[in-house]
Amino acid sequence: MIKYNLKCDKSHVFEAWFKNSTAYDDQAARGIVFCAICGSNHVQKAPMAPSVPKKGSAEQSDATTVDMNQAAAAMSAIRELRQAVEDNCDYVGPKFAEEARKIHYGEVEERGIYGEASAEEKTELKEEGVEIAEIPWLPQSDA
Question: Which of 7, 9, 41, 96 would be 117's cystine partner, CB 3.0–4.6 Å?
Answer without folding.
Answer: 96
